[in-house]
User: Which sequence fits this backbone?
């Protein structure tokens, strides 16, 4: 089901040669949320936007999931308002699978939905991340770590220390302690938990580093002898190197903790990358991720009592 | 002047063939701060450690700077206690020059000295970072940015928003607004300000990404045809690519805001990298960085009034 400007969508589908697909339906919107819209304003004034329509359809049960490449802040605010939080979850989290050195994806959350997180929120994120890793990629007893500035117990903010205590006391999670930024991609943990500010900065820093290294490598190649040959030979390696950080298969951050499934795609996603975000949503529908999160949180609370 | 176990130091200097150097002097210590020592405990109990002796020498004016590759947390706690803060600075910051896409270094602070920073502290860090960029690498009116999770004014935590307001009102700084993680290395800013937790995670994440990309690139090289030739040809590029993120010339994080000069070297620094940390200290002595920071902060306060 496509939410948006129907004539425009029809034209694009015709151009792509798929307009006649029998399962395509439209929900027309006159309005849209722009990338510059403030989330709070979009929430109040953009009730006839494609984004709002898509979320309303999830809330009504007409569709099972919403996939959007739009304004992230507005999507979070609207999804929070329309779909509401699951019982036992205070704040939503953006979670994404990242590549790791051992080839297995690592789930990191929150990547920017909740700026300030207290210990309880970080604890809930840990439970939600573990459910994602178990359900979506089938890791049994995923290793959960808190992102911190050191591995020792004394390091970090008070919230993180308290969250670590809560996680240590929880028998339903395979909590392995603190992890530092240099181990995000090492494969030491399957789920990495942090607040939205730190997660967002860390993720975007990766992008910056990848660009810097690519530039350096290209310069390095140019400066060496046999430059032309080497440059030509290296091109695929350099390209795969950059894509290794931004691969299509890692597109799609799930907004979790809500009573419905919402997947955020990169705004500049390729066709394949957008497909990957849709696949992510389908997988969450099949595995009933929101219900599993709710069940797991209830279980944790029962075991705690 | 070497602080530490004198017999051990003498032996090492003899092995290196420089024991007879006329300017070498020793301050013997029986004790040392280990990497596992808690900062607070080291501060209380390690008064006869090499680290404490080195800082005492700075405080007494016997030496002009301390360069240490020891326990970072203990060094910060001890330096804070022994050297005291400059007037107008509430908390110390670790600052380091990082590489950027345009070839010019970018100063980032705080990298882990102060976990929680309020708006005033972030403002002071901005002033200190600007002085470093001006004095140490001679950038006139360095562009100062706050690291945030978005470039819009509405993004981020309350501290960051208030710090941004303080920086906008300050005529003595070339404040350019918010910057995101993906622009840390883009060359958009000369000084990037954040709290110690975020800075530490971001910096260590860079290390993790660099390792991941190197591993991916090596795998990519192996999988391609002409593998042996290509691998051999690419080796220098791949090596320089990794070193590009961890280069010897970027070793040496300065602990600033104190009434004395302290430079922290990586614990596993090579000879060249350690030399670079010493050079950094010498430069700060020559440019009288602590006095310049003090003067600039006074100037800012006068202009504000």
Assistant:
């Amino acid at each position: 089901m496509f939410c948006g400007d129907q004539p425009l969508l029809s034209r694009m589908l015709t151009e792509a040669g798929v307009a006649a697909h029998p399962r395509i339906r439209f929900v027309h919107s006159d309005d849209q949320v722009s990338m510059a819209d403030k989330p709070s304003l979009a929430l109040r004034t953009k009730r006839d936007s494609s984004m709002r329509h898509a979320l309303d359809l999830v809330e009504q049960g007409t569709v099972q999931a919403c996939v959007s490449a739009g304004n992230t802040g507005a999507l979070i605010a609207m999804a929070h308002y329309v779909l509401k939080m699951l019982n036992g979850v205070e704040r939503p989290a953006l979670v994404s699978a990242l590549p790791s050195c051992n080839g297995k994806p690592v789930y990191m959350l929150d990547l920017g939905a909740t700026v300030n997180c207290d210990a309880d929120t970080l604890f809930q994120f840990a439970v939600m991340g573990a459910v994602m890793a178990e359900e979506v990629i089938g890791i049994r007893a995923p290793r959960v770590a808190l992102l911190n500035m050191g591995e020792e117990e004394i390091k970090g903010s008070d919230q993180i220390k308290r969250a670590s205590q809560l996680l240590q006391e929880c028998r339903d999670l395979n909590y392995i302690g603190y992890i530092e930024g240099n181990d995000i991609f090492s494969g030491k943990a399957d789920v990495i938990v942090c607040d939205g500010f730190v997660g967002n900065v860390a993720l975007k820093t990766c992008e910056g580093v990848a660009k810097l290294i690519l530039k350096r490598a290209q310069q390095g190649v140019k400066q060496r002898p046999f430059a032309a040959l080497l440059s030509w030979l290296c091109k695929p390696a350099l390209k795969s190197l950059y894509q290794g950080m931004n691969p299509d298969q890692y597109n799609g951050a799930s907004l979790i903790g809500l009573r419905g499934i919402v997947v955020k795609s990169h705004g500049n996603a390729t066709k394949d990358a957008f497909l990957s975000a849709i696949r992510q949503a389908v997988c969450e529908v099949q595995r009933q991720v929101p219900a599993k999160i709710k069940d797991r949180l209830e279980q944790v609370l029962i075991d705690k009592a």
